[in-house]
């Protein structure tokens, strides 16, 4: 199908985009990569009268790495962030997660910030946002505000963003030095939306055969309504890396998530899958020796 | 910034560079790039299967990178260089990917083929010597209802080979 007619606005500067959105936001939508919005328009699940296309707005296409975070502008494509070596060096979780976001052709156009604004519970980057304590930089007619990722998501496809606000950038927080991360998921085909998945950050103390887990945090994909951080520390703290026992993890994970059933999998299947993926992720992280160079935070 | 195009024209002039040639047409902003190519430019090599990004038949190259033309508006594609399957070779002078599809029987009905050809062209530009597993991964975002994919994966590896052979021939000349 084809989209219903709309007025296309193509601002070149951020203040212009904000001004347009202030006037039409109530009956308009921000258009970033369009990889979620255009399918919705094509299927006529939404018919906004205005689209504020931010692709030409100057200054939104940069990735900046600082001591405390990786700041990603609103028009940075998934593929651009995935290939960003400096961002990978300081926060490997970004690339680890992005490799699971759709297929390359979608990643070439879709934006990381757009996927966070879209707030799909099956999206990888919203879950990375919460587990890295990201900050959402929003701007609107009432000025700028910063929203902690943990307070940004309200429900499936719902955020605290007002209709006349747009996200200028997201700052992903760098993790403590030595934190090990991974992103694992299970999808019917690599690149499809996952049946379940998680981003995991593990802190290990000591080295070699004496190393033990100090703490672990995970955030899940497709098994919670909104991305939330599940602190696994109680179930894993003190486990020796050389011969860990993850049996306490299962109960903790299963209690923390509430998967919906759909045509692809039942709720129980997803619950069991999430627990198993958590165990596998923990094992891979505690047996691997690669460590992320953490930030100053 | 108050004159807010509530009265914006219902149509806009869109100028696109496709396969190296510039075209201007007057269309509605809601014109998808896929429809602009097919209906307005009559470049019907780009196929449309699902119109929500899933099948990959409509994949074109935007500045060399594969993207779904059904998930882009023509008006947004203006600053970019678009390459469609028509730009990747002709029947008499096939591009390496097209040649490989012929040799490996990588197509049956051919509906999905343009999307594969564009996707694989970009893939082998970055991965000149892929393994069969890498080839399978590279085409995982495109659907084919006929072939069962095995021959398409072989065609990816063969296309890379042909590309290298042709480069050697050019170098030797
Ligand atoms: C076939 C297919 C498979 C996919 N698979 C996956 C997957 O496995 N995992 C995954 O995470 N995603 C997947 N996606 C979605 C993809 O990641 C999108 O790129 C992403 O969800 C949205 O980013 P976008 O830039 O395309 O946003 P758009 O589609 O342009 O916008 C999405 C929504 O967010 C709003 N928005 C966008 N940017 C801003 C902003 N800066 N400020 C305020 N609001 C904004 C828009 O108004 C709209 O409501 C898939 C998409 C397709 C078509
Ligand atoms: S028609 Fe564009 S992906 Fe199917
Ligand atoms: S050859 Fe028929 S769909 Fe692929």
Question: Any key phrases for this structure?
Answer:
heterodimer, A: 297 residues, alpha+beta, Uridine Diphospho-n-acetylenolpyruvylglucosamine Reductase, domain 2, Uridine Diphospho-n-acetylenolpyruvylglucosamine Reductase, domain 3, Enolase-like, domain 1, 3 domains, 5-stranded antiparallel β-sheet, 4-stranded antiparallel β-sheet, disordered C terminus, B: 173 residues, Ubiquitin-like (UB roll), DNA polymerase, domain 1, 2 domains, 5-stranded mixed β-sheet, 5 strands, binds flavin-adenine dinucleotide, binds FE2/S2 (inorganic) cluster
Overview of this structure, please?
The complex is a heterodimer of chains A (297) and B (173). Chain A has helices spanning 14-24, 37-42, 78-82, 85-90, 93-98, 104-107, 112-118, 124-131, 149-152, 233-236, 247-256, 267-287; strands spanning 7-9, 28-31, 50-53, 63-65, 69-73, 135-140, 143-148, 153-155, 158-159, 166-173, 180-186, 196-205, 212-221, 229-231. Chain A has 297 residues and is α+β, with helices and mostly antiparallel strands. Chain A folds into three domains: 7-53, Uridine Diphospho-n-acetylenolpyruvylglucosamine Reductase, domain 2; 63-173, Uridine Diphospho-n-acetylenolpyruvylglucosamine Reductase, domain 3; 180-285, CO dehydrogenase flavoprotein, C-terminal domain (Enolase-like, domain 1, 2-Layer Sandwich). In chain A, strand 8 (153-155) and strand 9 (158-159) form a beta hairpin. The longest helix of chain A has 21 residues, at 267-287. The radius of gyration of chain A is 20 Å and the shape is globular. Residues 292-297 of chain A have low confidence and may be disordered. Chain B is globular, with a radius of gyration of 18 Å. In chain B, strand 3 and strand 4 (65-68) form a beta hairpin. Chain B has 173 residues and is of the alpha+beta class. Bound molecules: flavin-adenine dinucleotide (FAD) and FE2/S2 (inorganic) cluster (2 copies). Residues 48-51, 53-58, 68, 70 of chain B line the site of one FE2/S2 (inorganic) cluster (FES). Chain A: Residues 1-177 form the FAD-binding PCMH-type domain. Chain A: It holds the Pfam family FAD_binding_5.
